[in-house]
Structure to design on (422 residues):
């Protein structure tokens, strides 16, 4: 079947259809590129299984951030969290964009995906050590994952002639960067973070350089759905943090108003953040503006990382609430309430600002340019932090923080309805 790529050029693609029940998976299908206009394109069961490995990795990274804050190693914990989460995020990104363009769902493709899943699990196992500056296990897992990706790009180079040069650029660049990751392990301690920054920059530049010779046939609505699903996965870290918060408070104080305020406030905040993200029609926007995909895709790092951090900080809230003055251990390890709520507020602010910027950029919707709504949300977050500093009880702060995303929801939803009714 002949279709057209984003530049209007005709090329041959093979439409893939789900196998009916009872039909075995073929050993090999031509990896000739998916149809970018394919209807009803959704995530496959294999993609959903692949995502589950990241649930573990994100949970481990969040738990390590929580422990770092509680143990008063905030700066070190944040730096370690950002570096490890970047590896997790990029591992997911690499597979997701490839799958959107070249998912054949045959035996070879599934086995290469399994190799990447093994790499992600090794990476997750290495997160605790990596946040302490020992990146050997994390690097090994990351390299395993990327080698699986190289095998797939090599196959594209052989089976999709129109994108052979693009695929070979991916193969060469990925292998080179992986060699540098391994060599980085021999560097002295002072070079740990500078070298990480340079190599992450190199990773980000690989797709930019490779696709100068031709864009891969990714599917706009499929990519949007995949990002939405990963957003929900990261929100799961917030749900875990909220659950741990409530159970911790119940365990130390029993049922009380604090339980209701912390539990209800956490759930309301999570729900509001979910609502804000899915206000933006990213899929439709990417369908019409494929040239905006790079910045949109990379910009989601701030969204994902801030949401996962929010979950970790919600657990710190619980640690503060269960403090018992008679317990000297807890008293020494307690974090100041204003810092606790400040961390939650900063994470929420980063999320809101990121959604606003990406929404404006990729859609151009006038309704998403209502800057005063986001400014008002930031004012609310700041006011809540100041109120806690002046003595407002911490349990009341979480419901109060929810008013920030709620402000955005109300204003944008109203603007969108007015636009629809015109």
């Amino acid at each position: 079947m002949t279709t057209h790529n984003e530049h209007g050029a005709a090329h041959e693609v093979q439409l893939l259809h789900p196998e009916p029940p009872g039909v075995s998976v073929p050993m090999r299908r031509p990896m000739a590129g998916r149809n970018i206009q394919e209807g009803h394109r959704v995530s496959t069961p294999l993609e959903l299984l692949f995502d589950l490995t990241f649930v573990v990795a994100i949970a481990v990274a969040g738990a390590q951030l929580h422990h770092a804050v509680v143990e008063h190693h905030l700066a070190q914990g944040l730096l370690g969290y950002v570096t490890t989460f970047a590896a997790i995020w990029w591992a997911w990104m690499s597979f997701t964009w490839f799958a959107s363009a070249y998912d054949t769902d045959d035996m070879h493709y599934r086995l290469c995906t399994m190799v990447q899943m093994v790499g992600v699990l090794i990476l997750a196992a290495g997160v605790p050590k990596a946040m302490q500056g020992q990146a050997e296990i994390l690097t090994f897992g990351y390299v395993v994952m990327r080698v699986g990706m190289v095998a797939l790009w090599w196959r594209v180079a052989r089976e999709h002639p129109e994108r052979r040069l693009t695929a070979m650029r991916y193969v060469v660049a990925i292998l080179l960067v992986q060699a540098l990751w391994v060599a980085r392990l021999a560097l002295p301690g002072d070079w740990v973070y500078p070298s990480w920054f340079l190599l992450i920059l190199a990773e980000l530049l690989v797709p930019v350089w490779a696709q100068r010779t031709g864009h891969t046939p990714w599917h706009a609505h499929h990519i949007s759905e995949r990002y939405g699903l990963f957003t929900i996965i990261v929100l799961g870290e917030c749900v875990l943090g909220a659950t741990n918060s409530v159970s911790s408070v119940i365990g130390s104080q029993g049922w009380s108003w604090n339980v209701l305020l912390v539990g209800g406030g956490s759930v309301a905040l999570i729900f509001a953040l979910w609502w804000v993200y899915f206000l933006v029609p990213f899929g439709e926007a990417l369908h019409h503006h494929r040239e905006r995909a790079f910045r949109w895709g990379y910009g989601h790092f701030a969204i994902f990382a801030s949401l996962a951090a929010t979950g970790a900080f919600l657990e710190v809230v619980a640690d503060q609430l269960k403090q018992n003055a008679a317990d000297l251990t807890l008293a020494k390890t307690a974090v100041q309430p204003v810092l606790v709520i400040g961390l939650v507020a900063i994470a929420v602010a980063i999320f809101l600002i990121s959604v606003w910027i990406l929404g404006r950029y990729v859609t151009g919707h006038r309704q998403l340019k209502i800057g005063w709504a986001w400014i008002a949300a930031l004012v609310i977050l700041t006011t809540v932090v100041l109120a806690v500093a002046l003595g407002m009880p911490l349990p009341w702060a979480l419901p109060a923080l929810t008013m920030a995303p709620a402000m955005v929801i109300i204003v944008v939803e109203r603007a969108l309805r007015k636009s629809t009714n015109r």
